[in-house]
Amino acid sequence: MAVGTIVKTSSTIYEVENKDGRVACRPCGRFRVERIHPLAGDRVEFDPKEAVITEILPRKNRLVRPPVANVDRLVIVASLAPPRTADILLDSLTAFAFYKGLEPLLVINKTDACNGSELAKAYCEAGIPSITVSARTGEGIEQLKCILSSREGGLSVLSGSSGVGKSSLINALGLANAVTGELSERIGRGKQTTRHIELMKLGGGYIADTPGYSSFDPIEMEMTDVGRLSDCFPEFSELIGSCRYGDCTHVSDEGCAVVDAVRSGRIAQSRHHCYCELYKKLKPIKEWMLK
Ligand SMILES: Nc1nc2c(ncn2[C@@H]2O[C@H](COP(=O)(O)OP(=O)(O)OP(=O)(O)O)[C@@H](O)[C@H]2O)c(=O)[nH]1
Ligand SMILES: [Mg+2]
Ligand SMILES: [Zn+2]
């Protein structure tokens, strides 16, 4: 028996990779009975001779979209050039990364068309590592490669709305010949429904492209616990202890240190607005509803 990582999934075949190479495997019969679904990123035990996956090792985490397991880093790609990334999507994704315990990295692409350094600085100050790049000119791509390769064996997943340049970045990193532009949108939607995922090797780890989306639904993404929401905005954390009431929701409460910081400009209004919108969505969720 060998141990490896699922690096590619199609309808019934899973490509498992380890230091000895790649084997296209099928899952063992028990999986169907027990409704066990292997995912890209899964560490698995497999029989290389029979080409069968026999066991999925315990997962660190699992994303719904894209369907990937054991993710270390969420690379949030944004663009100030059209189609400009909506603040609320960007901030929902950074919150989502913290919620799932993923290391966030904000990558502002298309700097050849629109300078993103001020935005990057603002996010760095809010506690979210950010860089500016251009997939077109190659600016910042070496730095991006360096950051993404830094975690030995780690898995990074690209996210962000359609057209921000995720697939172009995969190409600029020299990892694949990913389809970009309008065509990718169509294929992208197809990919999402057929759940085909491929991890590409980067340094000691992997990276996965994802078809973009236009809105973020926290419930669909299994981000449901309103009690953990304020922890997903790192710039709130040092203030929360100073709110007048211990059960402050930081939405519009009297004596809220977060709301005060928004008024004085220390916290970006758009970030707080995103917090409030997510709060509204998560507040009515009760545990029994999730069963
Ligand atoms: N000016 C400029 N255009 C870029 C850059 N990167 C990508 N583009 C263009 O933006 C468009 C979309 O790029 P894609 O890489 O397909 O975007 P995507 O994020 O993969 O989109 P989806 O797969 O639909 O989610 C293409 O027309 C690219 O040529 C860049 O750095 N500068
Ligand atoms: Mg794409
Ligand atoms: Zn408060």
Question: Secondary-structure map with pairings?
Answer:
Elements: E1 2-9, E2 14-18, E3 21-27, H1 29-33, E4 43-47, E5 52-56, E6 62-63, E7 68-69, E8 73-79, H2 87-99, E9 103-109, H3 117-125, E10 130-132, H4 141-149, E11 155-159, H5 166-172, H6 182-194, E12 197-202, E13 205-208, H7 237-240, H8 257-263, H9 269-282
Magnesium ion (MG) binds at residues 166-167, 184, 188, 209.
Features:
3 domains; Ribonucleotide Reductase Protein R1, domain 1; 291 residues; five-stranded mixed beta barrel; binds zinc ion; Rossmann fold; binds magnesium ion; 9 helices; globular; alpha/beta
Cα shape: globular
Low-confidence stretches: 183-194
CATH class of the largest domain: Alpha Beta
Number of helices: 9
Instruction: Encode the helix/strand succession as letters.
Output: EEEHEEEEEHEHEHEHHEEHHH
Category by helix and strand content: alpha/beta
Q: State the helicity in percent bands.
A: 25-40%
- What is the number of strand segments? 13
CATH fold-type name of the largest domain: Rossmann fold
User: Could you say which small molecules are bound to this protein?
Assistant: guanosine-5'-triphosphate, magnesium ion, zinc ion
Radius of gyration: 20 Å
Molecular structure report:
This protein is α/β, with parallel strands linked by helices and 291 residues long. The chain folds into three domains: 2-56, Beta Barrel (OB fold (Dihydrolipoamide Acetyltransferase, E2P)), CATH 2.40.50.140; 62-208, 3-Layer(aba) Sandwich (Rossmann fold), CATH 3.40.50.300; 226-290, Orthogonal Bundle (Ribonucleotide Reductase Protein R1, domain 1). 28% of the residues lie in helices and 23% in strands. The chain has helices at 29-33, 87-99, 117-125, 141-149, 166-172, 182-194, 237-240, 257-263, 269-282; strands at residues 2-9, 14-18, 21-27, 43-47, 52-56, 62-63, 68-69, 73-79, 103-109, 130-132, 155-159, 197-202, 205-208. The strands form two sheets. A five-stranded mixed beta barrel has the order 1-2-3-5-4. Strands 6-7 form a two-stranded antiparallel sheet. β4 (43-47) and β5 (52-56) form a beta hairpin. α2 packs across α9 (269-282). It is globular. The protein starts with a strand and ends in a 9-residue tail after the last helix. Residues 183-194 have low confidence and may be disordered. Guanosine-5'-triphosphate binds at residues 81, 109-110, 112-113, 134-136, 162-168, 180-181, 184-185, 188, 211-212.
